[in-house]
Amino acid sequence: MKRLRRLKKKLIDNETIPYLITSIPNIHYLTGFDGSYASMVITENSYYFISDGRYQEYARSILPRKVTFILQDNGLIPAVKEILAKDNAKELYLEEHSMPLSQYFQFKNSLKKFKLRGGGDIVNEQRMIKNEGELVLLRKAASITDGCFSHLLGIIKPGILEWDISVEIEHYYRTHGASSTSFESIVASGAGSSRPHYKTGDLKKLEPGDMVLIDMGCTYKGYNSDLTRTVFLHNITSEFRNIYNIVLRAQETAINSIRPGITTGSLDTKARDVIKNQGYGEFFSHSLGHGVGLEVHELPAVKPGGTMRLKKNIVITVEPGIYMPGKGGIRIEDMICTGSDGPEMMTGSSKDIIIL
Ligand SMILES: [Mn+2]
Fold first, then answer.
1. How far is the CA of 332 from the centre of ligand 1 (A)?
2. pTM of the shown model
3. What is the pLDDT averaged over residues 209-229?
4. Cα-to-centroid distance, 286 and ligand 1 (Å)
5. From the CA of 314, how far away is ligand 1's center (Å)?
6. CB 336 within 8 A of CB 315
7. What separation in Å is there between the alpha carbon of 227 and the centre of ligand 1?
8. Is 308 exposed, middle or buried (0-12, 13-18, 19+ CB in 10 A)?
9. What is d(CA 314, CA 337) in angstroms, rounded to the nearest whole number?
10. Contacts of 262 by beta carbon, 8 Å cutoff, 6+ apart
11. Domain 2-127's class?
């Protein structure tokens, strides 16, 4: 209820009420509902939770008393219409990043009496700030991933498939308390590591001299983790030893600058400048990081030009990389909480150059 009350206060202050929530992770955050279909309408006087027959019994059993369950038997729009009519509303504010255009058009055609307006992404913004209970789950998700990385160091060797490693990651997670991976693990060996979103190969064998980039995360009680390390098989070239140290320095420079008040854009610049100054600027081709929580990618985006200012208790990744086309790439990623009095590393796997 605390989250719902805080949200309503914000909606009233912003004059963006009644407000329709269509994002499932947002509804999960606000009510604890972990089904796959629901919407909510927040009005000045009420909280409405709309779902279909599949979830009626479950939703009623978990919803706070002050939240009214509405069974939609004829689609979402008539249910919303009824609520708006009861509320004497003239307009409806929509969550901007969660409604598909097709659904927006349906709303526009069916709710002609009401003005539809963009209502920002207020729940996503509220979700950025984690409370202690959420931090406990994020720390646990991060530590399972650290455990997985140390486990992998014992099995990565020439001759095994990228696919074997990715299966091992999944197996480790599921046998260590996680419900699933947060995303499809990336295991990229050799030249494949130069593609930041490489698709793990089911036939690609690890070779001596390869570098192996592993980007992985797990979901623990709904909360996610995200970690990337790059290791080397048998040897490392002097070029990539140099690149590794630049990426590491870029990451550490950004991590040391994390504090409430800094914009995500200047945090990105801290890392990017280190890489640029070494002449590798054009090979760092993505943004520095992102928020992590109920979704593995959530606000804030830590990107060039980002204007959002960090606050206390926000969890972000810092993940610079240098990718040399046709040769290979290095990325180092950790999860960091801005903390209430100083930043806290949530992942803690070794960042020494590891040669297996
Ligand atoms: Mn990431």
1. 10
2. 0.92
3. 97
4. 11
5. 15
6. yes
7. 7
8. middle
9. 6
10. 309, 310
11. alpha beta
pLDDT digit string (tens) for 15-63? 999 999 999 999 999 999 989 999 999 999 999 999 999 999 999 999 9
Q: How confident is the model at residue 91 (pLDDT cuts 50, 70, 90)?
A: very high
The Å distance, Cα 333 to ligand 1 centre, comes to 7
- Beta carbons of 11 and 120 less than 8 angstroms apart: no
Looking at the domain covering 130-345, what would its CATH class be? alpha beta
Question: Is 287 in contact with 270 (CB distance < 8 Å)?
Answer: no
Report pLDDT digits (tens) over 236-277. 999 999 999 999 999 999 999 999 999 999 999 999 999 999
Rounded to the nearest angstrom, the distance between the alpha carbon of 159 and the centre of ligand 1 is: 28
Spell out the domain ranges in the chain: 2-127, 130-345
- Cα–Cα distance, 37 to 118 (Å, whole number): 22
